Amino acid sequence: MEGMAIRLQSLRKSFGRTEAVAGVDLEIADGEFFSMLGPSGSGKTTVLRMIAGFEAPTAGTIELAGTDVTRRAPFERDVHTVFQDYALFPHMTLEQNVAYSLKVRKVPKAERLARAREALASVRLEGFGGRRPSQLSGGQRQRVALARALVGRPKVLLLDEPLGALDLKLREQMQVELKAIQREIGITFVFVTHDQEEALTMSDRIAVFNQGRVEQVGTPAQIYERPATPFVAGFVGTSNLLSGDAAEQVVGDRATYSIRPEKIHVLKESAAAEPEHASATGTVAEVVYLGDATRFLVDLDAGGRLTALQQNLETSSEDVAALRGSRVSLQWHRRHNFQVPEASRPSVQDAPGKHVSK
Amino acid sequence: MNLSRPARITLRIAAALGFAVIYVPLFLVLVNSLNPDRSSGWPPPGLTFEWWADAWHSSGARDALWTSVKAGLGATAIALVLGTLIAFACQRYRFFGRDAISFVVVLPIALPGIVTGVALNTAFRTVLEPLGVGLGLFTVIVGHATFCIVVVFNNVIARLRRMPGSYEEAAMDLGAHSFRTYLDITFPLVRSALVAGGLLAFALSFDEIVVTTFTAGPGIQTLPVWIFSNMARPQQAPVVNVVAAVLVLLSVIPIYLAQRLSSDTASGSRI
Question: B169 in contact with A at a CB cutoff of 8 Å?
């Protein structure tokens, strides 16, 4: 299919009796920044390793740019990987590391050195070419791994939690840099992460993984504001679900609703509901002061508990702490309560491997 | 950790005693090889290199040294090939009986030499002799290889355990086929462990006596066996001292090099 960098069809992988990937279909477009998001053990890394060719699928097919590569070895695929531990060769200099893919492809020495230097310069490591990986900091190693994977101009770059080992500041800086590099060179990035914020900030599209399956594929806004399953609603952002009797009383319908905490206003109990707003009274069970904002956990009179997030524009920590135990009214615009489809596949709650019998 | 003064002194004396028990006798051997008194009287009346010259011209000692070198090199070569292959198999692949195999590989180093010796002797006589291969240098090499494999295996597997599999995956990911990956990545990273294992294996073989006695054919005498059979002859005592001194020096070098090459050497109990 034209314009498709990667196409996975009914991909499965079992390790012994554990089914790590239980049927995944995905299409990733050329030039897309695509994230695979999910908790550990959800199968996202296994899918990435199957695209790279390190694991052979138990069933299903993998196409790269329209060609079936399911049975091909890693060195026969036009994808390069940035490993979680970077996997820089410790017995080679940075220049040799970066030039390795060119050396294997028999690019003449002068040219490959020039390209390696250029690649190192592009990740702001000019003049580091003669050093060994052990002489670098984590952030520098990360950039070398990126340069090494990009120097051969692959069609697709696979990134396996590449920012996981970095501290928060460096991670945020690298997020911006990675995104800029991807936009500049325009190749497809497939990015594996368990960090929902990372996925939301960087991606064009996100696939949310759970127990070896894809729960939802969509843009960050779709994933965040229109979660397709209760799992997505809970995993991306704070879990804030109203269901059963509580949903019927507050929203007026017996279904499961997701409301994002920042959309909920915390008002005095006596406050009248604005038009088009849903409202629910309750007692503040807990107040968590976050510095820039405060999180309220409110037990509703209708049953259930909601989390509301308020910016600390004028309030201070003493003000908000005094609200613990007080009576409040929660209000939000009705367009913000989103009905979550009930779990469409019963297997979502199943233990891995059991679904086969259904 | 801070120790009390008496504890410190006691521990230092104990350490000094321990080292003295091991190294003073070795030092005495060296001194006596230079002692002009044929019966190693103490204190030495002077210094002489007469025994060193005698030893140099003793054809028995020279033949024995040559036999030891051949046996050591042969056993080391077998151990390097087999030990490395087993280490890769046990570290890189999961298969039925993997733990059992790594146990069985390591076991020979713990077996009493006399048991290995008798067992090999019987086996060689029953299996090899009907085929026309008698006990000789070849059987000594095979006997030594049984425990030399262990040190190579231990060294290589320790290195492989510390080496993440992602290096090899990264090489293949960057376009190197399997053999190229081995040449460019795997071999350079395990090379020093191989050399260290080989040196230790050679040192083990070089001073082995028990297994050698049971597996050597008539006329095959390694250096340690030669020393053992000449010790009882008072006439030969000074030359034995010289040979022993040479043996000490020859064993020190490989062990020193092996230690420097691999900080993670899991060396066997026989060293």
Answer: yes
- For A75, the closest of B167, B177, B189 (CB atoms) is B177
Is B177's CB within 8 Å of A73's CB? Answer: yes
- Each residue's pLDDT tens digit, B75-123: 999 999 999 999 999 988 888 888 898 889 888 888 888 999 999 999 9
Q: E strands within chain A?
A: 4-15, 18-29, 33-37, 59-64, 67-68, 79-82, 156-160, 188-193, 205-210, 213-218, 241-242, 257-258, 265-268, 277-289, 293-300, 305-311, 327-333, 338-339
| Contact assignment for A104 to B164 by CB distance below 8 Å | no
pLDDT category at B227 given cuts 50, 70, 90 is confident
Quick check: B167 and A87 CB within 8 A?
yes
- Structural domains for chain A: 4-234 (3.40.50.300), 240-339 (2.40.50.100)
Sign of the CA dihedral B86, B88, B90, B95? negative
Could you tell me which chain A residue has the CA closest to the CA of B166? Answer: A87
Distance separating alpha carbons of residues B137 and B152, to the nearest angstrom:
22
Put simply, the answer to whether B170 touches A101 (Cβ < 8 Å) is no
Q: Is A80 exposed, middle or buried (0-12, 13-18, 19+ CB in 10 A)?
A: buried
Classify residue A60 as exposed, middle or buried by CB count within 10 Å of its CB (0-12, 13-18, 19+).
Answer: middle
Higher pLDDT, B246 or B8: B8
- Is the distance from CB of A132 to CB of A154 less than 8 angstroms? no
ipTM over 0.85: no
Amino acid identity of residue A139, one-letter, is G
pLDDT number for residue B51: 85
Which amino acid appears at position A155 of this protein? K
Of the pLDDT bands very low, low, confident and very high (cuts 50, 70, 90), residue B244 is: confident
The predicted structure's pLDDT at residue B2: 81
* Chain A residues near residue B178 by CB distance under 8 angstroms: 73
Identity of the residue in A85, A100, A148 whose CB atom sits nearest the CB atom of B166? A85
The confidence score (pLDDT) of residue B8 equals 92
pLDDT of residue A291: 85
Residue numbers in B near A90 (CB within 8 A): 167, 189
CATH of B60-261, one of 3.90.950.10, 1.10.10.10, 1.10.860.10, 1.10.3720.10: 1.10.3720.10
B267 has a pLDDT exceeding 60: no
Which residues on chain B are in Cβ contact (under 8 Å) with A159? none
As a whole number, mean pLDDT of residues A165-188 equals: 87
Site from B95, B169, B173 to mutate, A interface, most A CB atoms within 10 angstroms: B173
In chain B, residues with a C-beta closer than 8 Å to the C-beta of A53 are 172-173
Stretch among A52-61, A63-72, B37-46, B157-166 having the lowest mean pLDDT: B37-46
Which pTM does this prediction carry?
0.75
CA distances from A289 to A32, A293, A319, A321 (A): 38, 7, 10, 8
Mutation to test the B interface, candidates A81, A92, A190, most B Cβ within 10 Å? A81
Query: Nearest-CA neighbor of A202 among A172, A226, A158?
Result: A172
Delimit the domains of chain B by residue range.
Answer: 60-261
- Of chain B, the end-to-end C-alpha distance in Å amounts to 30
Regarding beta strands A156-160 and A188-193, do their DSSP bridges make them parallel or antiparallel, or are they unpaired?
A: parallel
